[in-house]
Specification:
The complex is a heterotrimer of chains A (265), B (196) and C (779). Chain A is an alpha+beta fold. Chain A contains eleven helices and twelve strands. The radius of gyration of chain A is 19 Å and the shape is globular. The N and C termini of chain A lie far apart (51 Å). Chain C has a seven-stranded mixed beta sheet, with helices on both faces. A five-stranded mixed beta sheet of chain C has the order 7-15-14-13-8. The chains are: A alpha+beta (265), B alpha+beta (196), C alpha+beta (779). Chains B and C meet through helix 2, helix 3, helix 4 and helix 5 of B and helix 1 and helix 17 of C.
């Protein structure tokens, strides 16, 4: 925090945006601070703490599950709504992040703001087709999560604030499989994280932890949708992993886990 | 924008923050580079320890607004306006908290370095979940590393603490009920006198 | 006086007595080294080497001095050049004198280059970053076998180092021992030749190494430090900085764990900064610095060649242990010797025995003392080999072990042949509960039920069971010495001044219990102070599992002397003969029934009559080192899709003689086993190609949390060790040696692969499974 001159803790989103967009402050949004806190860039001069913003609620609105960006992993783990939605997968993911003390501090917003292989939620949000509500200089916008990282104009924490994560209505009754393969339960880094859905029309095989952003094994998904034999699906899956320059153990273990999911062991 | 919601550092990068520690309201002057655990230790609360400075061992656990957080992962300035409880705020040797008693009884204190953090995590757990299962205990305390005990006596300690706190609560409820009854009798006696 | 010979007659020993310092620590008492501040204190920071091997051609501190608040910068030019060892061992230390407070050669990434003391930590850090060093980078060597080869880079070329057996071939220590009455493997039906390796492991004590040096009112240097060996610190700092022992005082406060990493003298540089500035100086290692620049376990290759007969007789055993001692030879000889002496005697070997020990210098972090101390490395190999032999001859591994372990009254030629730096001492087993431990473990673990259940398994997730037995030692015979002083106060309480180092083990409480048993009081009636070199008498310190056995015996002897003094005064008060008196319940009690309180005795002796302070000191050193024994059982689940190994159950049956404090003894064993489980499944330092550690943090070097594995189940097998205080032996080290072989054997039982390289991380297990499949398909 060598160059931090201001510590701001606004209680309204409007106030927060005023600071964020005001060049004088050179502000950086901080939520739990567990990922970025020890590595705040020298360009930041204002620590913009969002802890007092009304972004902690978890509710159902318009049929969608809406999770406030400042909801912590512990909040999500213990939320009745999250435990009942989509077989409880969001609570499961939250509960498998690092340790209780980190879960008390880290937020879902912080977990999706910047690409990082440690992040837990991206792989699941991509699998579930989540959306993200952001506050920008032009007001609120809703974007599919999958496109968030592709949009060069949106830099969460720097020129916009993540307000909410939304899960589509249909995911309420779907089942997803989330696997974190790591050395120990509290490891920040995983060998691989996976999120699978075997919905006939829209299968998803999403891979995380290998790259800063998770990716879908698209060819494998297509093969599954077409009803191809398991070995073909798995071959395409391995190829997708090798395409991001990951070979050896992580590729093998991930493929084996998909094989198990497909019931083809 | 509310002027009270922004603090400015002086030319040496020092912030003046206002917070409450163990029920005592006060101010601290902290460097922008100082973490919460460093600031607390600097101001004399030596019970909170620094074991790794990367948020991985839990020795620096304190309660912030009753929630266990890692003191090494928070800049001190971010504690502004907060209510902090350190191990010293829970109890003293002459007047220990039931959780502190439980850890001693169970033989769960070996080198003791992880214990303040472990005890504060236990308090938060038992406040939320007064009768946790073993799995719930292990999950709630998984951020507090210990290299001495193998965690066996510590799980026992949490169970003992849960029993003690349950008994204490019952006792407090009984006492409160008695007081209420006494007060009610006083009121009715007064009323009776008045009516005479 | 009737000597107690049975644990059931004990009143204070063998109870779960409250740990004397526990409540204070549970309430956050400022008891650790860093919890006290001194006026005008400076903060120190070290400059560490970025190269694995280099000569310092030039150090320029000009820019560093310009940082405001800097008060001292030390380089090799500013401190005496005195070859010494940092190993906290008795004098003369059985380790090479190959270390210098600061040197002009750096021998590993993380070696000392310079030291800065400044008004603030930030200033010190900034100054360190501004020191300009010109290095002549040399070619390093990293492999154990490579370092011994002809022409390998020589880690120590300096002329003034001493006691290096063969610097040219990087040998820091070596020992060969052979008894060969017959031709090798002459009678064996099957022979084996296998190797096992472990990587760099770190103790991960939660409290980082911390030292504060300051001066007392008479200008003496006071070292307040997190150490296991206060007396060795005093002597070696005196040696390294060329100041008299008389002018140094070492105070050991409460310590946040050590496990061997604090059996090392790293205080010299802090002392040098204090002497230079005449101000208090504080140095606290960061976690990264603890990983890299304090001490580690010796990585090792254990190669075993042995022979077995179809009837289960082990005919020959050759144990070769090759240790990587890193850049300096601290503990190089002694860890290597224990890898043989604490291990080989456990086995009945019919004919030939051979031990080959080599400790090798490399340009990597310095290995030192770590719980287990060589036995960990060797038992990994030997107890896996036991399973291999049993399987080859088709014998039940439980029965094979029972047949081949040392029994009560037996000895071994290895005990005398292999001491720690000197010749060893002949020994016979005077207490053992090993067989009972195996029986108990088989029962509690449900060994045979599980074996039956897991004989036929289907699917990709498999379970398996494995066992391993071990022994350790209790102090170093005829080397380790401890002493103690006890005095009586007016109210019948006592002060005990003990030189032993409680590093969280509860040694203070254990010694108080032993003394209280003799004195007929509660252990809470004894106020223990340990350790302070000005105040407490000598003790080698906490290592080699010596505290209960040796320091405990010193406390017992001291208490007996004090008892005699109390009885002499009591005899005067009660007008009775001393022979008719004993101590009980804080009183002197006569056979006739008359009694007086200890308080009366104290006041009489202090104030009324024949005034004298009832006080005594005694020392103890042992002529034996009776081993504790242990049987370990592990149940694992292996996911063959990912190679992930999950521990489902772990049973540890330990014979430590009498457990002085039953709660603390259990805690020691639970913790030792968990430490072993953690390094079996998760731990290992990784290095880049140029010797830079890559995962020196708790973030990436993962030790087990409360939620990571099934709990350890410890059971005690009571025996009575006649040489121990009230039958006690040691308890704290042995547990760490079980998990590696027990879990390796369990994995083999589950999926048919033998893991020879620790840690058994998923990638290694999956690779082993693939190799096995490929070999099967090739057949």
């Amino acid at each position: 925090m060598n160059n931090i001159k201001y510590y701001a803790f606004p209680s309204s989103v409007a106030d927060a945006m005023n600071i964020l967009l005001n060049r004088k402050y050179k502000a950086l949004v901080m939520a739990g601070g567990t990922l970025v806190g020890k590595a705040i860039p020298a360009t930041a001069e204002t620590y913009l703490d969002i802890r007092n913003l009304p972004l902690k609620d978890i509710k159902v609105k318009g049929g969608k599950l809406v999770i406030g960006a400042a909801a912590t992993f512990d909040d999500i783990d213990n939320s009745e709504l999250c435990r009942e939605w989509a077989g409880g997968i969001l609570s499961q993911v939250a509960s498998q992040c690092s340790s209780q003390l980190i879960r008390n501090m880290a937020t879902i917003g912080g977990n999706i703001a910047r690409p990082h292989s440690f992040n837990m939620f991206p792989v699941v949000l991509m699998c579930m087709g989540a959306e993200v509500m952001l506050e920008t200089k032009n007001g609120k916008i809703l974007v599919p999560y999958a496109s968030l990282s592709q949009n060069k104009n949106l830099k969460p924490g720097e020129n916009c604030i993540i307000l909410e994560v939304l899960l589509p209505k249909k995911t309420k009754t779907q089942t997803f499989e989330f696997i974190k393969l790591a050395k120990t339960k509290s490891s920040w880094e995983s060998y691989v994280t996976l999120c699978f859905s075997n919905e006939k029309k829209n299968p998803k095989f999403v891979v995380g932890a290998l790259t800063p952003r998770p990716f879908c094994a698209v060819e494998a998904e297509k093969a599954f949708a077409k009803g191809a034999p398991a070995e073909e699906i798995l071959q395409k899956f391995t190829a997708a992993i090798e395409a991001v320059k990951v070979t050896g153990y992580r590729a093998e273990a991930a493929t084996n886990l998909l094989r198990r999911y497909l019931g083809a062991e | 924008m509310n002027k009270e919601e922004i603090l400015q550092a002086d030319e040496d990068g020092m912030f003046t923050i206002t917070l409450s520690v163990n029920g005592e309201l006060g101010q601290m002057i902290v460097s922008r580079n100082e973490s919460l655990v460093e600031a607390l230790r600097h101001y004399g609360w030596k019970g909170t320890k620094k074991g790794c400075d990367t948020g991985d061992c839990g020795s620096c656990t304190v309660l912030l607004n009753d929630k266990p957080v890692l003191g090494c992962m928070m800049p001190a300035v971010a504690a502004n306006g907060g209510n902090i409880t350190t191990i010293e705020g829970l109890g003293t040797v002459r007047n220990p908290h039931p959780i502190q008693e439980a850890f001693v009884e169970a033989g769960a204190v070996q080198c003791g370095y992880c214990i303040p953090g472990m005890i504060l995590s236990t308090k938060a757990l038992l406040d939320r979940n007064p009768e946790p299962t073993e799995a719930e205990i292990r999950k709630a305390l998984d951020g507090n590393l210990c290299r001495c005990t193998g965690y066996v006596t510590q799980v026992q300690a949490v169970n003992i603490a849960a029993r003690k706190m349950k008994a204490l609560k019952k006792k407090q409820e009984k006492t409160a009920a008695k007081e209420a009854e006494k007060a009610a009798r006083r009121v009715s006696r007064k009323a009776a006198k008045k009516n005479k | 006086m009737e000597e107690i010979k049975d644990a059931k007659d004990l009143k204070v020993v063998h109870t779960p007595g409250v740990k004397l310092d526990a409540m204070g620590l549970a309430c956050g008492a400022p008891a650790y080294t860093d919890d006290v501040e001194f006026p005008n204190m400076l903060h120190a920071k070290m400059l560490w080497s970025p190269h694995a091997y280099a000569k310092i051609k030039n150090i320029d501190t000009t820019e560093a001095w310009k940082v405001p608040g800097v008060k001292a910068i030390l380089t090799y030019k500013d401190v005496p050049r005195v070859p010494h060892t940092t190993a906290g061992q008795g004098y003369p230390e059985p380790s090479p004198y190959d270390t210098y407070t600061l040197d002009n050669t750096v021998r590993y990434v993380g070696d000392r280059v310079a030291a800065v003391a400044a008004e603030t930590l930030e200033a010190a850090r900034e100054a360190v970053s501004k020191i300009k060093v010109e290095y002549e980078v040399l070619k390093p060597v990293f492999g154990i076998y490579e370092a011994m080869e002809e022409g390998a880079p020589q880690v120590h070329t300096e002329k003034d180092s001493k006691n290096i057996p063969d610097a040219k071939h990087n040998i820091a220590a070596k020992f060969d021992f052979e008894i060969a009455p017959k031709k090798w493997f002459e009678e064996a039906d099957y022979t084996f030749d296998e190797s096992w390796t472990i990587p760099y492991l770190q103790h991960c004590a939660l409290e980082p190494h911390t030292t504060i040096c300051y001066f007392d009112n008479n200008g003496r240097l006071v070292i307040r430090t997190s150490t296991q060996v206060p007396f060795h610190v005093r002597r070696i700092v005196a040696q390294a900085l060329q100041i008299p022992v008389k002018n140094i005082r070492v105070i050991k406060p409460r310590i946040g764990g050590g496990f061997g990493s604090k059996q090392e003298i790293l205080e010299d540089i802090v002392a040098a900064l204090a002497l230079k500035t005449n101000r208090p100086v504080r140095l606290e290692y960061t976690r990264k610095e603890v990983f890299i620049s304090s001490r580690t376990r010796h990585p090792s290759i254990c190669r075993i060649r042995c022979g077995v007969k179809k009837d289960g007789t082990i005919t020959d055993l050759e144990l070769g242990i090759y240790l990587n001692t890193g850049a300096y030879g601290s503990h190089a000889l002694t860890v290597m010797m224990c890898a043989g002496s604490h291990v080989i005697p456990m086995y009945h070997v019919k004919n030939n025995i051979k031990f080959i020990g080599r400790s090798v210098y490399t340009n990597l972090p310095v290995a030192g003392a770590y719980r287990g101390y060589g036995a960990t490395q060797s038992f990994f190999g030997l107890e896996c080999m036991m399973d291999m032999m049993a399987e080859k001859i088709g014998m039940d591994p439980v029965e094979f072990r029972k047949m081949n372990y040392i029994r009560l009254g037996e000895g071994s030629p290895v005990f005398k042949a292999m001491g720690e730096g000197r010749e060893g001492v002949e020994q016979f087993i005077t207490s053992t509960g090993l067989m009972e431990g195996i029986e108990k473990g088989v029962k509690e673990f449900k060994w045979y039920e599980k074996a039956k259940k897991y004989r036929k398994q289907k699917g990709s997730i498999r379970r398996g069971i494995g066992m391993a037995c071990m022994m350790q030692g209790s102090g170093i015979p005829e080397v380790d010495m401890a002493s103690c002083t006890i005095k009586l106060n007016e109210d019948g309480s006592f002060n005990m001044l003990a030189g032993c180092a409680d590093l969280g083990t509860g040694a203070d409480t254990v010694l108080a219990q032993i003394a209280a048993e003799v004195l007929g009081v509660k252990h809470t009636d004894i106020v223990v102070l340990s350790a302070d070199t000005d105040v407490t008498p000598f003790d080698v310190g906490a290592y080699a599992s010596s505290t209960t056995f040796i320091s405990g015996n010193a406390a017992k002897k001291t208490a007996e002397k004090v008892r005699d003094m109390i009885l002499a005064v009591g005899a005067k008060i009660l007008d009775e003969k001393v022979e008719n008196l004993h101590l009980e319940d804080r009183k002197v009690v006569a056979k006739s029934g008359a009694s007086c309180t200890l308080s009366e005795v104290a006041n009489t002796s202090l104030y009324y009559y024949d005034q004298h302070q009832i006080i005594a000191s005694a020392s103890h050193y042992a002529q034996t080192s009776p081993p504790p024994f242990q049987a370990n059982f592990a149940e694992v689940e292996v996911d063959t899709a990912t190679g992930k190994v999950t521990l489902l159950d772990y049973v540890s049956c330990i014979d430590c003689g009498t457990a002085v404090n039953t709660q603390l003894a259990q805690g020691q064993n639970d913790g030792a086993c968990m430490n072993g489980i953690s390094h079996t499944l998760s731990e290992g330092l990784e290095f880049s190609a140029n010797g830079t550690p890559l995962n020196a943090s708790f973030r990436r070097y993962k030790i087990m949390s409360m939620n990571d594995t099934a709990p350890v189940r410890t059971f005690f097998i009571p025996t009575w060790e006649p040489n121990g205080p009230f039958g006690a032996k040691s308890v704290s080290e042995i547990g760490i040696n079980g998990p590696l072989p027990a879990i390796s054997n369990a994995i083999y039982n589950a999926v048919g692969v033998r893991m020879h390289r620790a840690p058994f991380t998923p990638d290694k297990v999956l690779a082993a499974l693939k190799e096995k499949k490929a070999a099967e398909q090739a057949e």
